[in-house]
User: Fold these one by one.
Assistant:
Number 1:
Amino acid sequence: MAKLTIMDHPLIQHKLSLIRQKDRGAKEFRELVEEVAMLMAYEVTRHLPLKEVEIETPVAIAKTNILAGKKLGVVAILRAGLGMISGFVKLIPAAKIGHIGIYRDPDTLEPVEYFSKLPQDVADREILVVDPMLATGGSASAALSVLKNKGARQIKLVVLVAAPEGVARIQKDHPDVEIFTAALDEGLNDHAYIIPGLGDAGDRFFGTK
């Protein structure tokens, strides 16, 4: 079963509370999503390997650590996932960026893929899939399948808010994919929106309805 990690860092929790507020304007919403994404990127990359190098400081020669060169990729599930990309690449500027377009059919609620553009060496990279909401899990599961069909084998899913139904779907369909979220909410309403959630992340981020 896929491991679920709920990030309880005080700054993440504080900023997520601000994001949830319905009267939060698009500008502030975008800024807060980027900030939370950056904080989550910090936590998600704790496992990255290091190697010892020798450098010269203004004072002396020092042995210190740098990243060991592990290749990373950040893949956004369109369109709301775009809001989390900048926070990740500010911390991981060498990461390649990919996009997967998935929409949920309003009648069947099933995911439909309409676009994918991924790094050519996706099979050689650890992939961090970002999307603010994990509701039914259908879109995320479909995106993970797209990645695996392209050869990706090291994948983590990073979301701001998750519903138990979405977590269960990923754990069933992709038990090898670790899930990171800032909050595990109560569940879904009749329209498959997360309760209490934060509304439609894409509309709030881009100022659309």
Number 2:
Amino acid sequence: MIYFDNSATTIPYPEALHTFQEVASKIYGNPSSLHSLGANASRILEASRKQIAQLLNCQEQEIFFTSGGTESDNWALKGTAFEKQAYGKHIIVSDIEHPAVKESAKWLASQGFEITYAPVTPQGFVDLDQLENLIRKDTILISVMAVNNEIGSIQPITAISDLLADKPGITFHVDAVQAIGKLPLESFMTSRVDLASFSGHKFHTVRGVGILYKKMGKRLAPLLHGGGQESNQRSTTENVAAIASMAKALRLTREKEVVSLNRMSKMRDLLYQALAGYEDVTVFSGQEAFAPNILTFGVKGVRGEVLVHAFENHDIFISTTSACSSKAGKPAGTLIAMGLPAKDAQTAVRISLDDDNNMEEIEQFLTIFNQIYQKTQKVR
């Protein structure tokens, strides 16, 4: 099997699974309980928070545990909107955000907030000049992802941070779900970023656990009320085993980050050069300022899902861009926002690599692709 769908979810590290099993079976107390079993669970919880904070270069009090990237994005947008509505109701999100952000923004519009979508260039990057022109006195929040999940374009987080340097009243949220282990931390966790979302299963731990980074001093209205966990910000009993597993996975990911980035870049370059050489192949992902693990392309006249299943017949697993939208059969929203016709966007498929992949898999993929390409000649 060749697994090239790592942007959808990654294979958990054995070490992370071991940590999960050990904590789940031995540290089973509720961390809010007063007895010793609860105290043991609380110690594991806080030790995990401390380790994650160190790995993200922030303070322990700035780390809040969630169920994943979708909850973190929802909380960032809705929590900010309702906390700051007295100061304004204008929110800007980029036109290529993940559905967790765009659908949250859409819901907020139904609650009386005004949403503006920042356009992107034909290459898939937020247009800084247009973004600046959209900012108003009543703008309370700007949300831009670090790495686009559909084509891998790296958004100009540092430049946006500079743009907002003299606008402290605007909360800046970054969806960093696709960034961990794929970009240097300083490129998307700038000092101007107020909120950042992370999802554990994107960096080799179990599903159902994530992080919201909230800068000290920033206020968010809670989405969940109840027992007052997570400093009264997110009420529900913490999933201590998953959180400990996530801390282990994050440490392993960051330890080998430099080597991994180099390996993935070389694999992606080989794929790019080979696929770009086919007459009826369009490579939607560029070469400059793109994540080292994502390459999106299409074969003229062939719908993306047809290619996905053709590769699956050879035990090779790729995706039709966003996993969260693929079953809906919609064309890649990022490509539409970039100005591509729907018929071209519907051909898009995404290869997403990880450190576990190797050059032999790349060569095998290209061999199988050539076979599939020849079989599509009549369609093309």
Number 3:
Amino acid sequence: MQITFLGTSSGVPTRSRNVSSLAVRLPQRSEVWLFDCGEGTQHQILSSDIKISQISRIFITHLHGDHIFGLMGLLASCGLAGNASRIDIYGPAGLNDYLAACSRYSQTHFSYPIKVHQSRPGVVYEDDEFIVKCGRLEHRVTAYGYRVEEKDRPGRFNVEKAAALGIPSGPLYGQLKRGETVTLSDGRQISGQELCGPTEPGRKMAYCTDTIFCEGAVQLAQDVDVLIHEATFSHQDAQLAIDRLHSTSTMAAQVALAAGVKHLIMTHFSPRYAPGNDIQLEDLRQEAQAIFPNTEMAYDFWTYEVERHRSTELESVGTRSDRP
């Protein structure tokens, strides 16, 4: 599970940060899931190693422009990029009407199927490998956070032990790998649990923006490997955060601490903290780390890989003047 940040600014883009979007790559199935799609997202994708043709699902947190203004253009480009399969889009009520109006007034017709699902608290998507849940956040409009859980996998199958027991290779191995009990031709019953190592826990991430500190974010982020949480304002500008229902760096850290997450990555920074100003992004990092030490700050084109039991960072594409 690889997370690439395509936009980490709030409200408006800056020279080094575009508005909100991130891509979750699932290499084992050649899919990309997109979370939010601010203006210019497809240009960011073209500057990354994300393939537009692999986008299969898009999750929208809320209908503010800096999170959706790039969606219609991206969907139009997906058809030209040869995306033959459908794209499923998840978001608040009104998202389908927005896309229908954009399509109608721009005379845009998609060459592939698009399905819009209205997000509601609970499970919004599930397959054999993943489950995606959403929960209400607290913002000026209806806003949702999303939690992606990879399902646990059986431990390593001990081929040597299976061979020593005289189990023939083939379909039986598949059943045993899944932990099932099989009956051999000689009548012996073998449990797959006896031949598999410890269960490998699935990886988990949560994405919470836009929101002020709320219990909904804490619940959504419980025990995840990585929490991606907005930190629009510095703690010194807490009143602005309260007035606009956004989070400060310390609020993001408090969510991470309360939820028991392993790693916090802050994003959605106000452009007011540009280099040379009285308060800079490094101040936000220090504020958060005073509460939750394992905190990083996202920047555009940074790729973060979530591994089982631990997390590692991959080198980003290009450099940025405000890179942490």
Number 4:
Amino acid sequence: MTKPLSGKVALVTGGSRGIGAAIARRLAEDGADIAISYAVSADKAEAVVKELKAKGVRALAFKADQADPAQVESLVKQVAERFGGLDILINSAGVFVTGEVGASANQIAGFDHQIAVNVNGVASAVRAASRLIREGGRIISIGSIVGDRTPFPGLADYSASKAAVAAYTRGWARDFGSKRITVNTIQPGPIDTDMNPASSDFAPTLTALTALGRYGRAEEVASAVAFLAGPEASYITGATLNVDGGLTA
């Protein structure tokens, strides 16, 4: 049986760990050739590439700093050149910096870096992909439920960065519509990763806020991405899908 993404090329930024790695694995299972990017951990990236190749697809890792627009543009171009095209762009790379307004002398530096990665990095990747992604392609960004609401102090900057991604998604859906390229955002809730482990001291508070009473798994986010990347989601664009266990219900 032909897999739904056979013959497709996908780039997953931040694909060396956590949600990004889970997305890369799932898209490979669905038949796509996979490029992943990483910022610092070459060993982790190569380990993921090895897993992907074992699934019978082509896979490569590329080092790129998402805060640097030139590196992001080069990344997208390299992927299209090495794989012979680009069909799916997954913007998964991101950073999480907290702090109440005025609380830290280093806050502006942290703010600038967070915006550079979470907003500018996504925008740079999409702009580069706009010249290369094939008709009928898919662009999916990983946002956060705090893009819709900010339930705790210290999240304002992070919330704003993710809200910007959702707003861009709605606008880009219009820009890409004539090429039948869909653009969507997935907003995870509490997901068990090294960035936000279910074993943390704060985890019980987040768990209690969900309708399902548990943290999510990276694979559950990846399943939502796989649906939006596949042929059955061809009429969904400009949408935001919360994968949050009912936290925002």
